[in-house]
Specification:
Blueprint lengths: L5 E2 L2 E2 L17 E13 L5 E13 L3 E5 L6 H8 L7 E6 L2 E2 L5 H10 E4 L13 H13 L3 H14 L5 H5 L8 H13 L5 E5 L7 H17 L3 E6 L2 H7 L2 E6 L2 E7 H6 L4 H8 L4 H4 L35 H5 L4 E5 L2 E4 L3 H4 L1 H9 L8
The structure holds adenosine-5'-diphosphate and magnesium ion.
Length: about 375
């Protein structure tokens, strides 16, 4: 079936490179995910389509947030970027070169360039080893340092994550640290490899609310100082607004909306983004933009939403029509660097669509 070139008077984006990323304003392109998909085999007959044709770019000194509730495919995207899962289809490029897991040496270099920080700071550190041990190994491996130089490097890493004075912290075991301190050690260990890309997979979601901001501030400083390209994965769209340049909203394997963080969070266009914003923890900040819909993002989950042909959000969408039940919506341009995939954007976000048309984002109906 031929794709139409416009829907609702909005340009259909068939090449995701046509959407500029707000993150690009910060720095050079580092990493590209091009139409990444991942299917998991459930049994002999069934495949789970966990990630479907996801494309985005990461840039130096910029944070891109991947937002969505549990099960939407966020970690699977990160694992593909980290080389831990093989994409079913699609391409990953680092510094312009296509990543090939078969090229052993190149892949080893890739693995140090792209570091992954996990959600659970308990699970990621070995309880029988000190902080020093956790940091020494990657520092030696990636930078071949010893003696004085190694010691200086360890202290520098601890200072970068603000665990100071460094010496007593280096001697501690994971159980002697708070959750926030453990997560800083995990970040320091990732930095020991001198990466250009940091994949932070829900790095604060297991921490006390009171210390989440501190860790995000540490990451923000590192982004600037080390010019890191950061993929920040979260189910909390309010923190994405605080921390990210660009937001990608993911639902059941699909990117349903993307754009500059403040635009997506202040005037969400896709009904799912509106739902996420309405259930975000800071109602004064974010709640007023939602003017309809009673479903909460915590209800229902993404199960049963995996039909190939439909909009996967339709069972939970207050705007769904027959078309949504039968046909997957294309990504539509709603701004120079903004897009959403929804057949009912005119009903869901009339103001956003009117704005897009006024600015001339509109294309002629053919
Ligand atoms: P998120 O990080 O957004 O919570 P995940 O990427 O972990 O989502 O999972 C997306 C979907 O893929 C879920 O339905 C999950 O159960 C499924 N999944 C993830 N990893 C595997 C795997 N190794 N085998 C089978 N299914 C998996
Ligand atoms: Mg996850």
């Amino acid at each position: 079936m031929d794709q139409p070139t416009s829907v609702l008077g909005l340009e259909v984006i068939s090449d995701p490179a046509a959407i500029s990323s707000r993150a690009a304003a910060r720095g050079d392109l580092v990493m590209e995910a091009v139409s990444l998909s991942k299917n998991f085999r459930i049994d002999r007959r069934a495949l789970l389509s966990a990630v479907r044709e996801v494309s985005f770019t990461l840039h130096r000194s910029a944070v891109v947030a991947l937002v969505g509730e549990s099960g939407s495919g966020k970690s699977t995207v990160a694992k593909m970027l980290a080389g831990q899962e093989q994409p079913s289809s699609g391409t990953i490029r680092l510094d312009g070169r296509t990543v090939d897991v078969r090229g052993r040496r190149a892949f080893r270099r890739y693995k140090s360039e792209v570091q992954y920080v996990f959600q659970d700071p308990f699970a990621s550190l070995n309880p029988v080893h000190t902080v020093r041990y956790h940091l020494e190994r990657p520092t030696r491996l990636h930078q071949a340092r010893r003696g004085e130089a190694l010691q200086r490097e360890l202290v520098a890493l601890m200072e970068q994550v603000r665990l100071t004075p460094a010496e007593p912290f280096l001697a501690k075991y994971p159980h002697e640290l708070s959750g926030g301190q453990r997560q800083r050690v995990a970040v320091a260990r990732a930095l020991a490899a001198r990466p250009s890309v940091l994949l932070a997979d829900e790095p604060v979601s297991m921490l006390d609310v009171s210390i989440r901001l501190e860790l995000l501030n540490v990451l923000d400083e590192l982004r600037q100082q080390l010019r890191l390209a950061v993929l920040y994965i979260t189910h909390d769209i309010a923190s994405a607004r605080y921390f990210a340049d660009e937001v990608l909203v993911m639902y059941a394997g699909d990117i349903v909306e993307r754009g500059p963080a403040e635009e997506v969070t202040q005037q969400p266009a896709h009904p799912y983004t509106q739902l996420l914003v309405s259930s975000a923890p800071d109602p004064d900040d974010l709640g007023s933009v939602l003017h309809h819909g009673k479903t909460k993002a915590s209800e229902g989950g993404v199960e049963g939403a995996a039909s190939i042909e439909a909009c996967r959000f339709h069972p939970r969408c207050p705007f769904a029509t027959q078309q949504c039940r039968t046909t997957r919506p294309p990504l539509l341009r709603i701004g120079p660097s903004r897009a959403a995939a929804c057949w009912r954007l005119d009903a869901a976000a009339p103001a956003v669509i009117a704005g897009a048309r006024e600015r001339g984002d509109e294309v002629r109906e053919t």
